[in-house]
Design goal:
Oligomer: single chain
Low-confidence stretches: 3-45, 543-547
CATH class of the largest domain: Mainly Alpha
Number of strands: 15
Structural class: alpha+beta
Strand order of the largest sheet: 12-5-14-13
């Protein structure tokens, strides 16, 4: 393995030192590698490892190759983008064929990546680094705890890094021949540095409130728009819980683990600007380490239970049958079923007999009637596996119960319509006027119109948080389209455009040249990716629909 060429003695796995990284990786691995009787994985009973799931550049892609690509890519995304784990699965599934195609294109182009580059890339990955630089212990812990249990090898992981570098070189190569033409650059600088003076024109809904709405109008609106007044879907559940506290008694914490944790988390133990001595916080550290290990053991037990459910339920064709499987296997192991008596909605804060467990509620509402069993869930006090045993669909709420809401919605709808009409009429008036500033000054006297000057800006200086200025940049000619806001309708009038001086352009020429080059390279890479995507086919959408 290339990482072993670093001529460093790899130390024994240390869970505590690696704890922070675990949180990042576990999220994605629980998501990707836990079998899914809910049908969320693409590898259902209808498909074998050799099933053809698509093509790249005319070459067939088998399920086993696709799954391996998903596994490898999920690892990389977890490492390089740990800040957005919730987006991980969707991103991987949506782009995996493009990734496979890019790897094939890089190979066809003869792009090679030497071991030295793979080593350097691994060394740069933040989660493998401590204050002293690359940490072999962290790398080895990652391999032992996350790569190998997923069925991958160290070689698989290092090869995924090699392919990642190769595709990055491929994309960079696609934009190497970008040429900056002087006239294009000058046009770009004029565009970026142009100073803009504008005003935001608002039409608040509150200024266009309708008069009294009759009972009949409310009833008629309700009958025509019952979809706006539906009750929330509800479900009843049965839960097997694996309490963290039940696993605490078997956890042993060594002094070495305590010391390692203390050294790695000194900032956590500061008081009055000084790090507290180990003796003062040892009991706290021991408690935290025991809890962390107990959580790990509880989740292991939950996953084992769920995997057993998956294997048994895969032979069952109905949701009712899977509920029976859940109860049978839970009974076989002597697991006590928690049976809440209250209906749950997706927004439920509490689960009867369990407490506040939002992750469990979310998992339950990701189940379906056909696949009613959840994934294993790490909760606040326990790990869980649950099944939705009863469901109540969304239905129209009785008029008497939602009358106040009906009136609120109808009143807002009418206010929006009136505000939109007023805004559209004023926009047309501005467009036809030879003196828009005079029209603006006159409109300031109208109580139904609010005018807010926008501080002069350019595309180079605009504050990303200033949504009004950013929207002004969308103006065709000098008036933006009318858009709805949370509290009213809005449009922007560009009052003045001032081109940059020669001195202003010269002062920022180097910066803007780099930005222009980067923009052209991005466009070239996008065009190349679009071409790659035209050479991919996926059959998985059809397969999912049939399952």
């Amino acid at each position: 393995m290339v990482i072993r060429k670093m001529n460093t003695v790899l130390v024994k796995h240390n869970k505590i030192l690696f704890g922070a990284f675990s949180i990042i990786i576990i999220i994605s691995f629980v998501w990707f590698f836990t079998p899914g009787i809910d049908g969320s994985l693409l590898f259902g009973n209808r498909m074998s490892p050799n099933s053809v799931v698509g093509k790249v550049f005319g070459k067939k892609v088998k399920l086993k190759d696709y799954q391996k690509a998903v596994d490898n890519k999920s690892l990389l995304l977890s490492l390089y983008n740990p800040a957005a784990p919730a987006e991980l699965r969707d991103y991987v599934i949506a782009n995996i064929f493009t990734d496979i195609a890019l790897e094939a294109a890089a190979e066809n182009a003869g792009i090679t990546v030497p071991d030295e580059d793979v080593i350097a890339e691994i060394k740069r990955i933040p989660v493998f680094n401590s204050e002293k630089g690359f940490d072999h212990e962290r790398y080895e812990a990652f391999i032992k705890s996350y790569v190998e249990p997923s069925g991958l090898t160290t070689a698989d992981f290092e090869e995924s890094i090699r392919k990642f570098i190769a595709t990055r070189k491929l994309l960079q190569g696609a934009s190497l021949n970008v040429i900056v033409v002087p006239d294009e650059l000058d046009q770009f600088m004029n565009h970026r540095l142009e100073k803009i003076k504008a005003s935001a024109i608002r039409f608040p809904f509150a200024s266009y409130k309708p008069g009294k709405i009759s009972e009949q109008e409310l009833e008629d609106f309700y009958k025509k728009n019952t979809q706006l007044f539906m009750t929330a879907p509800q479900l009843m559940t049965e839960v097997v819980r694996f309490d963290y506290k039940n696993y605490m008694k078997d956890v042993k914490v060594t002094d070495k683990q305590v010391e390692d944790y203390y050294k790695a988390s000194e900032d956590k133990f500061k008081k009055d600007g000084k790090v507290q001595p180990l003796a003062a916080v040892k009991a706290q550290i021991v408690g935290e380490l025991k809890l962390e290990e107990a959580k790990s053991k509880a989740m292991d037990a939950a996953r084992e239970f769920r995997n057993e459910l998956y294997n048994a339920a895969s032979e069952v064709s109905t949701g009712a049958g899977q509920i029976e499987v859940f109860n049978t296997i839970a009974g076989k192991h002597g697991f006590q079923l928690v049976k809440p008596v209250s209906w749950l909605t997706a927004s439920s804060e509490l689960i009867d007999k369990i407490g506040r467990e939002p992750a469990l509620v979310a998992a339950l509402f990701h189940t379906t009637e056909r696949y009613p069993i959840t994934k294993s869930v790490a909760g606040k006090r326990a790990a869980y596996v649950a099944v939705a045993v009863k469901r109540q669909p969304s239905v129209p709420a009785p008029f008497a119960e939602v009358k106040a809401k009906v009136e609120e919605v109808l009143a807002l709808q009418r206010a929006r319509a009136a505000a939109k009409e007023a805004a559209s009429n004023f926009a047309a008036k501005l467009a036809a006027s030879k003196n828009p500033q005079a029209e603006l000054a006159a409109a300031a006297k109208n109580p139904g119109i609010q005018i807010k000057p926008i501080k002069e800006f350019s595309r180079q200086t605009v504050n990303p948080a200033d949504y009004e200025a950013r929207y002004a940049l969308m103006a065709t000619d000098n008036i933006t389209p009318v858009v709805p806001m949370a509290d009213g309708m809005m449009m922007i009038l560009i009052e003045k455009r001032t081109p940059p001086t020669a001195a202003e352009k010269q002062a920022l020429k180097d910066t803007l040249t780099s930005e222009f080059q980067a923009e052209k390279r991005a466009l070239a890479e996008t065009a190349f990716l679009d071409w790659v995507r035209t050479n991919t086919e996926s059959y998985l959408a059809n397969e999912q629909q049939q399952q």
